[in-house]
Design goal:
Number of strands of chain A: 15
CATH architecture of chain A: 2-Layer Sandwich
Shape of chain A: globular
Number of helices of chain A: 7
CATH class of chain A: Alpha Beta
Helix content of chain A: 25-40%
Structural class of chain A: alpha+beta
Radius of gyration of chain A: 20 Å
Strand order of the largest sheet of chain A: 3-4-7-9-8-13-14-12-11-10
CATH topology of chain A: HIT family, subunit A
Largest interface: A-B, 72 and 72 residues
Strand content of chain A: 15-25%
Number of domains of chain A: 1
Oligomer: homodimer
Largest sheet of chain A: 10 strands, antiparallel
């Protein structure tokens, strides 16, 4: 009837309960998003409105200097700031606090207001991933920053109402318990068994094949054995790399191909669902050899409620093998 | 500008960023829920439809045998089942699984279709909490169950569309990593310092006063120093108790008073927001002296997105002291 599966990286148990299946046809019957114009004169991220976003910290210029491919600007409502000058933690009994020093930037992914990642040309997805690498390396060079997170929220259920394609980078002085704990899990496995558990997982998954969604020379996209929800996807570099900052140019192009292929399968197979993706990478302070970065895509189909909050477990209403088989079967248009 | 605070129990960092404040007046202007009838002939949880929910496992009868105060029935779409007969975990390389043995019951909180906890008489809230104790103790008596979770989802943003007041109990054979980790945190503090960290937190908070929402002889309700969101509330027993199963009759009455007072402040002060609450209690297998159970209420005002998913951190847009001061100031009608 149902099965509990353990995610060996996050150490979370997931209840696979297909009785409540999230069926692909339920998505096809959802209303589509309203169509957008390629340019919105009121959008602060559209070309011509660059003055509305001051302090541009990076841009990838377009060919022949005709504008830009991507821009990086501070978030208008930053949760952290580089202007905090007191880095010292404060301790008072059980109360521990530190001023909110850090980075909170927005990556404007394209001049086009109406494109989602699945519909961009491969070169544009590559430009986004090169911009991520630049931001990752810039943050890594600041010794005050302990952890760097790159992520994208797509759609209202994923936490954004701003439609112009954008991602975010948040870098913090503290390294969260969750991040430290997952790094320690990989370190412990390495110390005990002499190999990276994620390198082994990649090898095992490619050999077994049933949870693979997309494979190329440098990357494998798969539905994890203990996926936390339907169509949850991990994209791993096949080469062992601790930090996203290490990705080379060939790998950027291959990651763009893998990410675009997967997001096109979600877009055409599940009617453009809301999703989050995050790049889980080693923070600066960790020796790179001990982690193995990956990109995690979580379509926002179900809502975490009291059970997930109280138990730290998840309920997934599809078998990961079925989610992967469905995604493999999705035919996407050429382009 | 912003401040990071550490939750010493969950070990999560929270970014307190009041620039994006969740203001009480924003809630007052939300549309109210549509009014409900006291009885809905189509509702499976309403009196007269008891035959639609087979296998009732418990009921608290009404006075003079005139019906019932609460009923417990199996969830119609259970994620776990007592009928699984193979409790042996399966291991195959990195894949670990076990059949979905466990309990997934619904607690029907009242015969009245239209009441929410905030509007129930104190005696009804007491009946619900006595029913919780019965379920907790029944699950504790089954040696195959390792963890027991009692929780309530109120409203669509909290994960339920069923309006008849109900809670759920889920008991699993496995104990999740999150639960084991939090228990270990309390055990470690006890071993190092010779006292329960939550007993100390209760004492410190009552002495400082600024985050207290409600206080009675047996319970204290407060906004945690590192609350994960605005109006996040913890209710602690002032007596050190590892397990909810240990609560005595006087304490049940006092918890009913505390929970009802807090939920009335949310209801009248924030226009009946959606919320989850969970009872975090020691699982059966843990020595009771080493944990300190509590009830956690999380109003669903903000949505976790890529940042929370990828970092294991939270962003709270109000200072906990301000949330507590607002809740203390809310005047609720008599009754």
């Amino acid at each position: 009837m149902s099965e509990l599966r353990l995610n060996v990286v996050t150490k979370e148990w997931v209840i696979i309960a297909p009785g409540r299946a999230t069926r692909p046809k339920d998505f096809k019957s959802r209303p589509s998003r309203p169509p957008l114009a390629a340019h919105d004169p009121d959008c602060p991220f559209c070309p011509g409105n660059e003055h509305l976003t001051t302090e541009e910290s990076f841009r990838l210029p377009a060919a022949l200097d005709a504008g830009w491919q991507t821009r990086v600007v501070p978030n208008r409502f930053p949760v952290l700031s580089r202007d905090q000058t007191n880095p010292a933690p404060r301790h008072d009994g059980l109360k521990h606090a530190v001023d909110g020093f850090g980075v909170h930037d927005v990556i404007i992914e394209t001049p086009r207001h109406d494109l989602t990642t699945a519909l961009m040309p491969p070169s544009q997805v590559e430009a986004i991933l090169r911009t991520y690498r630049n931001r990752y390396q810039v943050c890594q060079a600041d010794p005050r920053l302990g952890h760097i997170l790159l992520f994208k929220n797509h759609g209202p259920a994923a936490g954004t109402s701003l439609v112009h394609p954008h991602s975010q980078v948040v870098a913090t002085s503290v390294v969260s318990y969750q991040v430290r704990d997952r790094i320690r899990t990989l370190e412990d496995h390495q110390a005990l068994y002499g190999h990276c558990v994620l390198c082994k997982m990649v090898d095992d998954e490619i050999a077994e094949g049933v949870r693979i969604v997309h494979l190329n020379e440098s990357f494998v996209a798969l539905v994890p054995y203990a996926a936390l929800s339907s169509y949850h996807i991990w994209i791993f570099p096949r080469r062992h790399m601790g930090s996203y900052g290490e990705i080379n140019d060939v790998e950027v192009a291959n990651l763009a191909a893998s990410l675009r292929a997967v997001l096109r399968k979600l877009y055409f197979g599940l009617n453009d669902p809301d999703f989050n993706y995050v790049i889980r990478s080693s923070p600066r302070t960790c020796s790179n050899g001990e982690f193995h970065w990956y990109l995690s895509i979580v379509p926002r189909l179900a809502r975490a409620a009291g059970f997930e909050l109280g138990s730290g477990m998840y309920v997934n209403d599809s078998y990961p093998e079925d989610s992967a088989a469905f995604l493999r079967s999705v035919q996407v248009p050429d382009g």
